[in-house]
Amino acid sequence: MARALIRLRFFTDENVPDSVARYLRGRGHSVYRAKGQLAERTPDQVVATVAMEDDRVLVSQDKDFKSQTYQQPRYARLSRLALVGPGPTLRDAVREHIHLIEAQGVHRHAHGGRMIIHVQVGQIRIRT
Predict the structure, then answer these.
(1) 122 in the Ramachandran plot: left (φ > 0), alpha (ψ -120 to 50) or beta?
(2) Three-class SS of residue 53?
(3) DSSP designation for 35
(4) What is the pLDDT of residues 48-92, one digit of tens each?
């Protein structure tokens, strides 16, 4: 497996499959898991705050992370990789789009700001 040019920092929510975390680690990225770090069923706002305070990209599969809550000023620095689709397809979706995800991470690192990426097999949407 090829290594990434830049090491990104991810924080995976408890619903993200282990295969996604393993894949990102295999590329050389730093991955912290909510499983084992936070109590089970920790509220999404707490998960988002932990990721943001540690300057990590939150990886989640929750549709509710798209809600207006995360557009509030206190979440202005939150970067997120939103995974869309059935669990078994998520690693493949990340793998398919990893070069764009990493390129966006390089851009974020160089220019600041945040990134919001929605990924599913065959499709990627990027917002900054």
Answers:
(1) left
(2) helix
(3) B
(4) 999 999 999 999 987 666 565 667 788 888 999 999 999 889 999
Tokens of 128: 């900054």
Closest listed residue to residue 59, CA positions, set 70, 48, 69, 67: 48
pTM: predicted TM-score of the whole model, two decimal places: 0.90
Number of neighbours of residue 105 by Cβ within 10 angstroms: 23
Domains and CATH numbers, the chain: 9-127 (3.40.50)
Phi-psi label, residue 36: left if phi above 0, alpha if psi -120 to 50, beta otherwise? left
The angle at the Cα of 82, spanning 12 to 122, to the nearest 5 degrees, equals 125
DSSP alpha helices (H): ranges in 27-79?
44-53
Relative orientation angle of helices 87-111 and 18-26, to the nearest 10 degrees: 40
- Write the single-letter amino acid at 32: Y
Residues 95, 33: Cα–Cα separation, whole Å: 19
